[in-house]
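FAQ: What does the model actually see?

It sees only this:
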Amino acid sequence: MAITLDLLREHDPAGPAFRRFGRDHCEPLLDAIGSPCRDAYIARRRHAAR
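And it is asked to produce this:
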């Protein structure tokens, strides 16, 4: 995970200031930390939608 002080100042810690490696957008901290169960659920849902 990566973060800059400028992003923290702009969005505060609850905002989209955190970037997970391998993703192309910033997220709030709890989303950036991730949840393996939630990530698996979302992946299954996307696969089923195809």
